[in-house]
């Protein structure tokens, strides 16, 4: 079983195109694991997938992308569909990090961090992880430091995506510093 490919397929189905898999999501983004399983099994390359494979991917996902409860599964963040996963605001760490392209850095410093087609801005607790994400768009990304605790005190809501990722709807530029330009 190629768990990396299965994880990518599950992410695509739960975050971006549930209709392609005929998944019936509730208002919180939850789908029956059995329904997801049957939808995956309809594709020839996943015909042998079993429920335990889905559970394994959800539990071992390196970025904690999935949540399972009461025989249901959902993606926790990164949705491009109109569904908004409701999260309770939390107390973020003092600093968070966001990796971005050199091209986007100036616009972010002028206009703030915006979700850009996603529901939330994603920020990492670790600068190395943020730079790794930034390398998807630029081989020499810019590391931005977000003064999360200060922004929270001034009314910016932060939501815990998982142990490695925090989310916000928008972060005003005054809370962002350029940490590193490669």
UniProtKB/TrEMBL annotation:
GO terms for biological process: tRNA splicing, via endonucleolytic cleavage and ligation. It comes from the Bacteria. InterPro entries: Ptrans_KptA/Tpt1 (IPR002745), RNA_2'-PTrans_C (IPR042081), RNA_2'-PTrans_KptA (IPR022928), RNA_2'-PTrans_N (IPR042080). Keywords: NAD, Transferase. Its EC number is 2.7.1.-. It is an enzyme of class 2 (transferase). SUPFAM superfamilies: ADP-ribosylation (SSF56399). The keyword NAD applies. The keyword Zinc does not apply. GO terms for molecular function: NAD+ poly-ADP-ribosyltransferase activity; tRNA 2'-phosphotransferase activity. Removes the 2'-phosphate from RNA via an intermediate in which the phosphate is ADP-ribosylated by NAD followed by a presumed transesterification to release the RNA and generate ADP-ribose 1''-2''-cyclic phosphate (APPR>P). May function as an ADP-ribosylase. Belongs to the KptA/TPT1 family. HAMAP family: KptA. This is Probable RNA 2'-phosphotransferase. It comes from Acetonema longum DSM 6540.
């Amino acid at each position: 079983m190629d768990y990396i490919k299965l994880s990518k397929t599950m992410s695509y189905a739960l975050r971006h195109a549930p209709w392609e898999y005929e998944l019936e999501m509730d208002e919180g983004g939850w789908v029956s694991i059995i329904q997801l399983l049957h939808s995956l099994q309809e594709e020839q390359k996943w015909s042998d997938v079993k429920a335990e494979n889905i559970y394994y991917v959800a539990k071992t996902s390196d970025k904690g992308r999935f949540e399972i409860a009461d025989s249901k599964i959902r993606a926790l963040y990164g949705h491009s569909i109109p569904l908004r996963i409701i999260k309770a605001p939390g107390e973020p760490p003092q600093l968070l990090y966001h990796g971005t392209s050199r091209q986007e850095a100036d616009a972010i410093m002028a206009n703030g961090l915006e979700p850009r087609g996603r529901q939330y801005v994603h920020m990492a607790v670790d600068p190395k992880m943020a730079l790794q994400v930034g390398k998807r768009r630029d081989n020499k990304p810019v590391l931005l430091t977000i003064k999360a605790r200060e922004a929270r005190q001034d009314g910016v809501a932060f939501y815990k995506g998982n142990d490695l990722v925090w989310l916000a709807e928008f972060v005003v530029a005054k809370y962002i510093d350029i940490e590193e330009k490669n």
